[in-house]
Amino acid sequence: MATNTKQRKNRVYKDIDLSFNVNALSGDIGKKLDANAIKQSLMNLLMIEPYERKFHPELGSPLSELLFSHMTPGLEQSIKIVIGQLIENFEPRVSIKDIGVRANYENQLYEVGIHYLVIGVDQPQGLSLNLTRLR
Amino acid sequence: MAQLNVTELDFDAIKANLKRFLEGQTEFSDYNFEGSGLNILLEILAYNTHYNGMLAHMLANENFIDTAIKRESVVSIAKALGYTPRSRRGALAKVNLTVVPPSTYTSTTLQINRNTPFSTQVDGATYKFYPLDTTTVSASTAGGAGPYFLYGTSVLPTAGTKGYYYPVYLTETAAQAANTKDSGSTTYTFTEYPGVSFYIPNDNINEGVETLGTSTNQAEGVTIDSGLSYGMYTGQSASSATQTQFNFNSLAIKEGLRVVNKFVVSQGSLQGPYVIPNLAIDTSTLRVRVQESASDLTVTTYVKAEKILDIKADSKVYFVEEGADGLYQIRFGDDVLGKQLKAGNIIYVDYINSNASLSNFAKTFVLGTTLSSSGEELTLKTAISAYGGSYKESIDEIRYNAPKHNATRDRAVTSADYESLILSSNSNIQSCSVWGGEKNDPPIYGKVFISLNPVVGSIITESDKDNIKTSVIDPKTPVAIIPEFVDPEFTYIGLDINLSYDPKLTTLSKGEIEAVVNTAVTNYFNIDLNKLNKSFYNTRLHDAIKAGDESIITIGITNKLQKRIKPEFNVAKNYTVMFNQKLQPRELTTSYFNLTVGSVIHKVTLVDVPGSTVVPPSYSGTGVVNAIALDGTKVSEVGTIDYDSGKIIIPAIIINTLYGTETNLRINAVTQRDVRDITTQALVRTSDTSTAAVVAKPSRNVVLTLDDSVLDATVNTKLGLKISATPEVEEI
User: Which pLDDT band, with edges at 50, 70 and 90, does B191 fall under?
Assistant: First the structure.
């Protein structure tokens, strides 16, 4: 009788740690694994402006332009759309569940929360960051 | 391990190669995602590789003259080949300036300074011209009764023949006294000299002279050379006495603005380079002078070094080269090759900053300053309109010229060397043909023959030829080689073109088709011929006509040849004409002329009568040339014709006059049917007329041009270019 053995193997993402910390045990350069690697990637993407990368002007988002504008309720929605499109276009390892943007007028910043699933990783992930206005 | 491809230069291809390389390891896996840290490192690596690849590629390209793109690279390579790219050139014009000073001016000389500006306008813009150098002339005497000379027929519509100078006088007495064959004189006035009456002897035709010393006519009506006793008339009244005037004849003036730069020599830059801070410089006008120091005002003029063989340790020379930034720079010697400067010397560099070709064709010049003193009368006439202005040599031109210049090694040895050197020395020369005397018939060893064809609208003067001989050829040619200039000779090609066309394939009418063909023929001659060393090829003309319109089906071309000789009237003279092609018997004709036989004058034309051995199909042999009257009767047998070589010899005939406005006797012949191409390679003599023995020389001096004759039955000339288009009718 034939045996159909289904093996599930979680995809392991291994990226270099851009903080260039040294692994205390091996002395090698630090790594980011799985969800942490994705988080680093998302942070990188959010920080890239269009035309910043040589030969790839399409990469990046106009976040910094939006952060330069006056804080209005409409901008929250714009930031949300921009972040959503950016992740959809350039980070195929992520499936977005929700993006929340809230304007904090008192401190002149936007509180951003991204809830997503990493493909190949079971646990839902979250990334919270504050985007401060650029002026 | 994945194969590493290292041949890519493109950023994305390099990055893809790196990714493919990373696929061979398991340590990192996120190289495929744009946001990953590893991707950033990959981009840095790819960018760096791309940058270095481009740099290596560009460095390799810029090392060779064929592939270099940057001007500084091309110029640098050209420098290694001993070639200095030509700078901008200001347009050059020549003017005849006559100054009649007021009576208070007592000096016997007058100077025009090199900084004296002439101005002109071209297309609404004003340009300044300056004399090439400060020029001083001595006073000459002009005025009195005359004679003055008028040129051509424009001023003497009823009396004179074009091409001659006619004497005119300010007093009737002087005119009648000069009248040798007739009596009396006629009064004329000329718009150029309002209010002044001139007296011309009634026999002025006999008094006309062909040349005035070494003067040349420039179509201004009157031209008087300084070598004569009389100067150009400058507006005196008829009663005025002889007066003093200063003639600046053929004064060369160059377009641009004069600029002076000053450099102080320091210990660290005894040899330079001293960069001339003007991109628009015309380096041919450079003058470099060195002052000893701020306190010692002794000035020495340095000359441009042409070749190092003549330069000694104490030679006061400078070198010019184009620098990396496109600016020209000058360098000085090192006490081995040329004298070295000393610290504290002051260099004065003056030159003309030109507007290149913008002022070409300027015709009218104005001198805004006074040369002698207030009250002087100035007459300024243009001898040669502005020509030769050009932009600096382009990168492509340098790429083309530098290797060829290097191939001559700055020596005139082969005929190609001569042609290259002569053409680059004078922008007035459109084409040039050079051949060794050993190719002459009979050979003349030790001589090099040079024929020069000027560009349309300009002339090559004797001084130009002297300059080419002494400055261009003599310093670069082996010893015991004598250059000799030979005037270009013209052969006029007439064409009978019969063509058929399909009217259904075109919207053009018969006349328009003929006009298209006319344009095609004219373009063929303008582009492919009208130059020395160019041959007429029937097939090329055929192709040019065929390309004129797609409806043209068949083309038939018959070649006719014409030579024009300028006869000397009333003198027995030999005339030899070389058509240099196999000629068809019984086709020789000429324009009408009066022939003196004995003491009787006959109006005749020339025809050929072949000998009995001249039979088809080869028509080989000789015949005689007869002068026949208008009624067809033979007046005299005047010469012979060789149908094989196309040589016509007419010994010792006396031509009395020509008819109509003709100044040349036109001799027409038709080539044999199998002669389709007219080449300039065979040997012929260089002159149509000669009273001495005939010396055969190569036809390398022949310029083939289109026969522009018009139909005139009174003179017996036929249409040079005859085009007949026939629509082809389809059979139903």
Answer: low
Per CB-CB distance under 8 Å, the chain B contacts of A12 are 29
More confident residue, B438 or B333: B333
Q: Are B231 and B158 in contact (CB under 8 A)?
A: no
CA-wise closest residue to B570 among B650, B654, B636: B654
Q: How many helices (H) and strands (E) does chain B have?
A: 10, 37
Q: Which residue has the tokens 């090694």?
A: B409
Q: Please state the three-class secondary structure of B710-721 as a single string.
A: CCECCCCECCCE
Q: Which chain B residue is nearest to residue A44, measuring alpha carbons? A: B35
Whether A41 and B30 lie within 8 Å, measured CB to CB: yes
How many domains is chain A built from? Answer: 1
Distance CA B560, CA B721 (A): 9
Q: Is the ipTM of this complex over 0.85?
A: no
Nearest by CB: A14 against B28, B35, B47: B28
Q: Given CB atoms, is A112 within the 8 Å cutoff of chain B?
A: no
CA distance B43 to chain A (A): 8
CA distance B349 to B305: 15
Cα separation, B310 vs B677, in Å, equals 48
Separation in Å, CA of A68 to nearest CA in chain B:
23
> What is the model's pLDDT at position A101?
94
3-state secondary structure of B113: coil
With pLDDT > 70 as the criterion, what percentage of chain B qualifies? 84
How far, CA to CA in Å, does A20 sit from each of A40, B32, B583? 13, 20, 96
The reply to whether A29 falls in a domain is no
Domain encompassing residue A114:
35-131
Nearest to B11 among A44, A48, A55 (CB): A55
What residues of chain A lie within 8 A of the CB of B36, using their CB? 15, 37, 40-41, 44
B462-514 pLDDT, tens digit each: 777 888 888 888 888 887 788 888 888 888 999 999 999 998 888 888 999 99
pLDDT digits (tens, 9 = 90+) for B32-70: 888 888 888 899 999 999 999 889 988 999 999 999 989
B90-135 pLDDT tens trace: 998 988 888 888 888 888 889 999 999 999 999 899 999 999 989 9
| Per-residue 3-state assignment (H helix, E strand, C coil) for chain A | CCCCCCCCCCCCCEEECCCCCECCCCCCECEEEHHHHHHHHHHHHHHCCCCCCCCCCCCCCCHHHHHHCCCCHHHHHHHHHHHHHHHHHHCCCEEEEEEEEEEECCCCEEEEEEEEEECCCCCEEEEEEEEECCC
Nearest by CB: A15 against B12, B34, B36: B36
Hey, are the CB atoms on A90 and B27 less than 8 Å from each other? no
The pair of structure tokens assigned to B154 is 């424009």
- Residue pLDDT, tens place only, A46-63: 989 999 888 888 888 999
pLDDT at B639: 92
Q: Does A37 touch chain B (CB under 8 A)?
A: yes
* Residue A83 within a domain: yes
Query: What CATH number does the domain containing A97 carry?
Result: 3.10.450.40
Asked whether residue A6 is assigned to any structural domain, the reply reads: no
A contact residues 72-101, partner B, Cβ 8 Å cutoff: 90-93
The reply to whether A26 falls in a domain is no
Beta strand residue intervals within B566-695, DSSP E = 572-578, 589-590, 593-597, 600-610, 622-629, 634-642, 647-658, 665-670, 683-685
Residues of chain B in contact with residue A31, where contact means CB-CB under 8 angstroms, are 28
Which chain B residue's Cα is nearest to A38? B36
CB atoms closer than 10 angstroms to residue B383: 20
Chain B residue closest to A31 (CA)? Answer: B28
Helix (H) or strand (E) holding B12: helix B11-22
B29, B30, B35 member nearest A45 (Cβ): B35
Task: Calculate how close chain B gets to A64, using CA atoms only, in Å.
Answer: 17
